[in-house]
Amino acid sequence: LFVGITDPTQTRALDDIKFHTNLVVEPILVAEDQLKRALDLWSTSNDTLGGDDDEEGLDNLETSGGDDDMAAGDSGVDAKGDDTPVVKFVNKVLIDAIKRGASDIHFEPYETDYRVRLRIDGILKQVAKAPVKLNMRIAARLKVMAQLDIAEKRVPQDGRIKLNLSKSKQIDFRVSTLPTLFGEKVVLRILDGSAAKLGIEKLGYEDDQQELFVNAVKKPYGMVLVTGPTGSGKTVSLYTALNILNDDQRNISTVEDPVEIRVPGINQVQMNVKRGMTFAAALRSFLRQDPDVIMVGEIRDLETAEIGIKAAQTGHMVLSTLHTNDAPQTIARLMNMGVAPFNITSSVTLVIAQRLARRLCNNCKRASVLPEHALLAEGFTQAEIDAGFTLYEAVGCEECTEGYKGRTGIYQVMPMSDQIAAIVLEGGNAMQIAEAAQRAGVRDLRQSALLKVRNGLTSLAEI
Question: How many CB atoms lie within 10 A of CB 76?
């Protein structure tokens, strides 16, 4: 079903049409005068299109870039970004993305069209199309907002946009440009710090996992590691810990690449390899700054790992991340880096592996039934099946359109027990560590996900 629309960011109307017609809806950008002529020709009543709730105030949005080293150059487009239709289009896309809870915005040029996609609850969804001839202007507008060099189109650039929605509401965007065959693709990561201020109770930790997490970060020293793939919520977990610790009695310093969430009361350092500000260099400086809590964005090499472990052993709380699949593999990864087993067991107090799963919409989720053998194959135990629980599946409604609304965390929270420490000191592998953790009652990621399914929070299809 092709739908003519003057404002492609008005996705709610498109979603309504899709829901009520059960058809694939393809929005086509048309000029306002063309649409008006069509309405005058075919309308049989005096009904008019609904008003645009976002129109008021769009022209008054204030932005400020995040990289003063970059300057606008001569690209054939006004460096001030004074291209009203494009300005309004970009602003509306940004506002719509914020309202819909998107994490990323993709502006993508192709040979014959230009599309805009939002990543919502981990899934990319096309929300708008624009005339392909506007691709340079849209990219230029975004680069002006981020204070990037609009004349440079041959190399990737990174910047930052601060969008002032009101006097009390600000949203930051991390901007990345990439030269492609048909123009510059621009991706914006929405850095909304509100997620990190929700409190640990809102993140999806089970009660026993939450207690382990809070107790570990409140210790005066030690190392807490959070692991998982990109986009699994590691940053939110780290900032939740920092918010728990952030008070007048503690000196907290962080080094990140980049600084995603700005928090008053915390000394945040932006990593800059070109100027010598690496994770390791920042850590050395932190240790001379009388720190209580140190957060390192990621442990990428042996040097960073050893300095962080030394800090944890000398009376500091250290928080960091690694890219591994689960908690036992995190310990094995440190050993493979070359960290001495004794240093691992004497510093690491807790490892958290995590993923994000889409949360079922409470308005439309529907109970489903699976035979016992299928439940056993999925990983449920006989005792869980005998106790009884209700499975739910995604349906889709006007509130969610796809059966899911929001996301919840799935966690494996593994403390450094005496049994695990003994395996590490003996040079054991990740499988042996996992078996010891299982015997100690630590749920792995699959078991934690199945618990969310049993509680009706997500579906088997999602995990």
Answer: 9
Q: Which residues of 365-394 are buried (b: 16+ CB within 10 A; e: fewer)?
A: beeeeeeeeebeeeebeeeeeeeeeebbeb
Nearest partner of 429 among 293, 352, 291, 333, judged by Cα: 333
- Indicate where the chain has its CATH 3.30.450.90 domain(s): 54-190
Q: Regarding predicted confidence, which is higher, 27 or 11?
A: 27
Tell me, what's the pLDDT at 63? 54
Amino acid identity of 396? G
List, for residues 423-454, the tens digit of each pLDDT value. 999 999 999 999 999 999 999 999 999 999 99
Whole-angstrom Cα Rg for the chain: 25
Q: Tokens 């990439």 belong to which residue?
A: 178
- Which of 63-67, 230-234, 383-387 is least confident? 63-67
pLDDT digits 0-9 by tens, 101-139? 888 999 999 998 899 999 988 889 898 888 888 889 999
Q: Which CATH architecture has domain 54-190?
A: 2-Layer Sandwich (3.30)
pTM beyond 0.90, yes or no:
no
Asked whether 349 and 216 are in contact (CB, 8 A), the reply is yes
- The number of beta carbons lying within 10 Å of the beta carbon of residue 134 is 18
Q: Comparing C-alpha atoms, which of 343, 318, 319, 317 is closest to residue 331?
A: 343
Examine the pLDDT at 346 and tell me if it is beyond 50: yes
Where exactly does CATH 3.40.50.300 map onto the chain?
Answer: 195-454
Largest CA distance in the chain: 82
Q: Which helix (H) or strand (E) holds 116?
A: strand 114-120
Cα-flanking dihedrals φ and ψ of residue 2, to 5°? -90, 130
Fold of 195-454: Rossmann fold (3.40.50)
Contact yes or no for 197/312 (Cβ under 8 A)? no
Query: CA 237 from chain center: how many Å?
Result: 11
Residue type, 367: A
Place of tokens 């500091």: 316
